[in-house]
Every structure is written in structure tokens, then in C-alpha cells.
Amino acid sequence: MKLHRIIATLTIGAAVAAPLSAQAETFPSRPVTLVIPFAAGGPTDLLGRVLAQSMGASLGQTVVVENRAGAGGTLASNFVARANKDGYTVLLHHIGMSTAPGLYRKLPYNPLADFEYLGQVADVPMTVIGRPDLPAKSPQELLSYLKQQGNKVNLAHAGLGAASQLCGMLLQQAVGAESTTVPFQGTAPALTALIGGQVDVMCDQTMQTVPHIRAGKVKLYGVTTRDRLKPLADAPTMREAGLKDFEVVVWHGLYAPKGTPPAALATLNKALRAALKDPALIGKLDEVGVQVVKESLQTPEALRTQLSSEIDRWGALIRQAGTYAD
């Protein structure tokens, strides 16, 4: 009897262990959800959808994009931080992941403690643009206009924590004059207001602005990168315009909940690396000036280093500006 019980126990144990082992070996066995912390149609959403398609091909599973907009990206970040630790929920977030600790007094998660890091993804340049009938005709004239008009200038942004807000903060600091900032619930309504002449100036990512610039719907004054951009080759950098240290690039990273199994993380990182070599993805992003990061940055370690450094950088600027949210 005892021998039969031992055999039965071993058989049951093997039956339980086998599916678990098979499940670990076949990750992913169902669709993966890519959470985007901003509204559909915005720059991060556009990047996420291109990335999801390429990663899905590598994983052999559909990567479903889920938009969870609100509170400058913190709602989505908190959702992913609390999600199941199985590799099936990941987060694509931009520079806002590093500014949230400075902007929010009561952040419900810790960017450095509550996530696993999969790797950096892409750098998106920004443009400084104005309403079609803005008097300034050149970047230099725009800087003079901002200084002279001060708070008479309406500077639009896509909401607290948005890249457009951060770029606008830097622009005001660099010029040495405070504009009247006008927040919107997303990039699309802010751009609509700029095109319609309801606001004067705005910073935003090339993924969103290049089509409007090419169509002549907004005035382009400069790009925020160190070097000129291929899709906007005639546009000077803001450094060329006289702002010596002005440089803003919206970096993006891929995250999973803390405690996600190493095997799943390795599979996801492998799929990320494969996606960032996909000629179709590179071609789509190149059209709007988006640069896939070099291979050495497509690692968990590189993303963690970037995030930690940027938290320090933006925290100091935000404290200086006195911009907070409860």
C-alpha cells in the first residue's frame, strides 16, 4: 500500500509539473498586451502600434495595444506595476516615466522599484512650432518675441507630464521669460488649437507635427536635437538659433511588472531587439525623424541607468519651476 501511494504521489506530481514546465517553455502562448499611457493617435501611441506589429511577428503572438490615458501617464504605469507578473502585460512609456516622481507628490508606484526593465526603444525629436500667422519669421525672431511678449504668449502643451510640457518648461527657462501655459487633454486638441490660432506656440514630437509642418498648417521654428533632422533638413536646431544648451529628445522604454519571470523577460527583450532591426519599422519611424536606439541601449541595464539619470535631471528642473500635482 505504501509503495502504491508513493507511486501515485510521484505520478500526480509529474502531471502537475509537466504543464507548468511546458507553459514556461512556450511563452507567450497567448496575446501580449502593450499598455500605452496616452490617448490613441498621439506620438507614443503611434510608436507603440508600429512596435507592437513587429514584436508580435517575432513572438508569434498578437501584441494588443491598450490605451490607458490619464494623469500624465501615471494611471497606466500604476496599472502595469500592479498587473500579473507573467510577462503578458508590458508598458511603453516615454520621458514621463522619469518626470513623474518630481511632478506628483503622491505617486502610487516607484519607477525604480516596481518594474522590470526590458530596454530602451527609440528617441523621438521635438519641434518648436507656432500658429500660422505668428509674427516671428525666424527662430531668432521667435526668441525675441517670447522675451518681449512674456505672459502675453500662450504656450500650449498636452497636459501635465507630457513631453510638450517639459519642452515648454525648458524653452521658457532658456529664453528667460515666462509665457502663459495652456494645458490640453492630449496632443491632438493642442495642435488643433495652434492650427486654429487659439494659442501661439507649442513644442511637440515629430511623429505628430511633421505632417502638419509639411502641409503648411503650422510654422516651424526649429528642432530640439543636437543635429538637424533628415525629414526636416531645412529646419535649424534651437542651438543654432542661439539656445546653446537646448536639447530635448523624448526617449522611450519598455517595462514589465517587478517579479516577472526571467525567462519571459528574456523572450520579450529578444523580441524587442528583433523588432528594432525590422526594416519596415525602421522605415516608418525614419519618415518622421524617429531614431531607433543603438543595440547597446536595447538592454535592461541601459534603460535602468537612463531612467535613474533622468529622474535626477528633471526633478531638479521641476523643483525650480515649482510645478506639482497632488
UniProtKB/TrEMBL annotation:
The keyword Signal applies. InterPro entries: BUG, Bug_dom1. Keywords: Signal. Residues 1-24 form the signal peptide. It comes from the Bacteria. SUPFAM superfamilies: Periplasmic binding protein-like II. PANTHER family: BLR1237 PROTEIN, TRICARBOXYLATE-BINDING PROTEIN. Belongs to the UPF0065 (bug) family. This is Tripartite tricarboxylate transporter substrate-binding protein. It comes from Roseateles violae.
